[in-house]
Amino acid sequence: MSSRLIYVMDPMCSWCWGFAPVAEALVAQARAAGVPLHLVMGGLRAESAALEPAKRRYILEHWQAVEEATGQTFRLEGALPEGFVYDTTPACLAVTAARHLDPDRAWALVGLIQRAFYSEGRDVTRPSLLAELAEQTGLSRQAFADEFDSPERQAATAADFAWAQDLGIAGFPTLLAERNGQLALLTNGYQPLASLAPLLGRWLERGASA
């Protein structure tokens, strides 16, 4: 019987950062039952132009609302500086590159990218920084760079985006549980751990007794 937890997200999605402690706990809960994690990149933003001031203000207000709702800390001072292009594709590509090399380290990389962007105010659209963070997970910097630049990883990232769109997933975080090809929706959007842990627990129990 094949089972896995599928997390559809974007490393530069503010609600995914707010959801990070919940996701970490749920991934640990699933892994303790022998159910692995599979990351799917959702592709939040593919931008080529710098943020306009009004859009920047709107996003920072949204971040503040996410912080208030989830308790996750955002560094708002100096965030999204003038000229910043809010393109999440490089960060998504970094995760698919890491996923190809080592799925466990890909999950660690997600956390490092989120922390660098939201807590430290670093520009995680830069490939050099993404390679640095990948190396911190224990991946070879050169192997990561080769995958990051490869047409195969670009295609895999685009395939992730298409898979999420084909399922009608328009918001992140989205958490799915898959057993023998059958998908169960655990959440589309932020929910606290107290709501989701029992839900995942019941799904895991059904699998154990099947």
UniProtKB/TrEMBL annotation:
Q: Could you cite one Gene Ontology molecular function of this protein? A: oxidoreductase activity
UniProt-listed SUPFAM superfamilies: Thioredoxin-like
Looking at the record, the residues that make up the DSBA-like thioredoxin domain are 7-197
The family database entries (Pfam families) matched by this protein are listed as: DSBA (PF01323)
Entry superkingdom: Bacteria
* PANTHER family, alphabetized: DSBA FAMILY PROTEIN, GLUTATHIONE S-TRANSFERASE KAPPA
Q: What is this protein called?
A: DSBA-like thioredoxin domain-containing protein
What organism, scientifically named, is this protein from?
A: Pseudomonas syringae pv. maculicola
**Species classification:** Bacteria, Pseudomonadati, Pseudomonadota, Gammaproteobacteria, Pseudomonadales
